[in-house]
Each structure stands twice: as C-alpha cells, then as structure tokens.
Write a structure and sequence with these properties.
The protein is 28% helix and 17% strand. It contains ten helices and 16 strands. The strands form five sheets. Strands 2-1-15-14-13-12-11 form a seven-stranded antiparallel sheet, sandwiched between helices. Helix 1 runs antiparallel to helix 10, helix 2 packs across helix 5 and helix 2 crosses helix 6. The chain starts with a helix and ends with a helix.
Length: 388
Amino acid sequence: MANTQAIDHVLRQAVTAHDVPGVVAMAATDQGVIYEGAFATRELGQEAAMTPDTVVRIAPMTKAITAAAAMQLVERGTLTLDSPAADVVPELAQAHVLTGFDASGTPQLRAPKRAITLKHLLTHTAGFSYEMFNADIVQYQTATGTPGITTCENAALTTPLLCDPGERWEYGINIDWVGKIVEAVSGQRLGDYLQHHLFAPLGMHSTSFKLSPSQRARLASVHARGPDEALAVFPFEMPQEPQFQMGGGGLYSTAPDYLRFTQMLLHRGTFNGNQVLQPETVHTMAQNHIGDLDCGELQTVAPALAHTANFFPGMQQKWGLSFLINTAQTPQGRSPGSLAWAGLANTFFWIDLTQRVTGVFLTQILPFFDPKAITLFRDYEAAVYQAL
C-alpha cells in the first residue's frame, strides 16, 4: 500500500481553504486500489459529507464509456471505424459544413467533401463542435431555433460541421452521435446497452443516465464560482426523460465505479473477472488517431460554463479513441502516451499504461477548468506518483 498521508494532506488543505466545496479521489495500480479519500460536504452549508460513494455528474467522462461500447461492436464486426457512419444512422448524411452567414443572418451551408466515419466521431475530427466552445454554433442555434445540447432533444444534434471531416480536431457533439450508432446497431437504448455490456460486468452499480432514489440520496450539488471567487450552489440536472441519452455527457457515476472502468483499461480489457474488450482493442484505443493534427486548447465562448482550457500548455497533444494523449512526461509524473479526459463540473481521470497507474478526481464546480480545481487535481496527481 502506498503512503497516502501526503495525498490526504493535499486534498484536506484545499477543502479547508475553501478552494473546492468537496472532493472524492481514488487511484489504483495494476495491483489494486492504492488510494481512496473523500473530504468536506456534498453541498456548501449542508451536513451531508462527501463519501466515496457520492454520486456526481461525470459529464464528458461519459465519452470514454460510450467509445468502449462502440469498440465492442467493432470487435464483433457489426461496426467498422472507416465506413460512412450514415450507413448506420442515416441522419448523419444531413450534416453540412457551415461556411458563414449572409447579410440577414441566414446560415450558409455546403455538402462535406467526404463522409463522416465512426473514427471521425471518436476522434472529434468530424467537424462538429459545442456551443460553449464556438460562437458560430451559438449564432446558428439562435438563427435556426436549434436547442442546446444539454436539452437532450434530437434537434440539438442537427448543428452543422465547421470543417470537412478529417481536416481538424474540433471538440463537439461527436460522441452523442456515437451513442446513436450504438443504439442503431444493438437495438437497445444506450443506457440499457451500457448496463448489460459494461456496467454489470465491471460492477459499476451506481452509474446510469437516470438517477435512482438511492443515487439521488447520495448526489453532490454543483457549485458555480462567481467573479468574487465565492462558490454558490448552481442547480443543474440532466433531463431524466430525454429524447436521447447523451453518450457524450449524460452519465452520473461515483469514484469507485469510474475507477473500475479505468482499471479495466489498465488491465487491457478485463476487470472484475470479466473481459469486456480485447487487449488489442484497448491497444488500438490508446494510439494517436489524429496523425499530425493537434488538440491543444479549447477556447471558451461561454465563460459561465467553461474557462479556456489547455491541459498541457506548450506540449503537442493527440487524441485516441476517445482519450486525450500527452506526448511528453508531465510535471506531475504522468508517462508519455497516457490517456485522460475530464467532465464539465471539474471531474478528471488519467490512465498511465506505462507506470500502470490510474486515478479519478471528482468535484462539482463550474466553470470547467476552474483554476483552483485544476491546480488541486494536478497536486493530487503529483502526490499519487510520489506515493508510488
């Protein structure tokens, strides 16, 4: 067992300083869990303590799970990475490239030069974006009355492409479309597919799109940091009866559950006595799939929801299926070629396949990439590596 007192100290100090309202963090090596800690409360001013089984909105940490589901179907031969995705979900053929707006504000669109593939979607190179990271999407939504993505209305998926598929990395609604593809191929609702093929085999009993009474009783509140740095409760809940279950960001989960998922990847596809992916599939998912493209900075256009975010300033960053990949060792000790991503309310994970260590860090704070939360996450990760 690693010496975890220093990790406790890092997290406890941050909640004492009110940098975060509450935090749950866990880490494991290929030998098992090496750290578990929960500090402060689920909601400021309330008594319910943060506990390891506290339920949080993992938001875009959902993406890696949906990607794993799609890769199961690739393994079975019912999906391919490079065929036109519209062969499976015909609505994708309607996606056109936005070239601008005319004098009256009407969007100008053209057909894309090539078809969108599953690989484009898994690597965020299809051309789709998010309204919080692109002003043209906001303008398009306003001009056309298209709802925002968190409505989970099917119409929210009809925003245009910002470039031709394969031409640049543009973070967006791609994995929501992957969720639609999983549904079309499997014949199941996305949550039902995930339950049968990932959550049950891995023992992820507190992960779902819809909150059960037990999960709701353990749910942490989202807090927003105001201009004065103070945190206040920010009511936020994903639609519980959505038109589509949001494969890109709709799941609720816990630290132990998500760590089971990352441990499965650390163990090359097997955990809890069950193999859910082939070792070769995990190896494929962990490779750079965007070639010479770079996925550096996310530029915010919605400062209430997200700061401009760059995980590794000055470093070339790549994307797998569906993970951020650092190309050099990080100051915290993470090996080159590690896998990672995050969630909107400042939830983070990483999987270091070289040093065989994975960690999960969960807060519930907006905006995304909150400076105090990201500093704490980095300090936590450094403490985990020091404890090894």
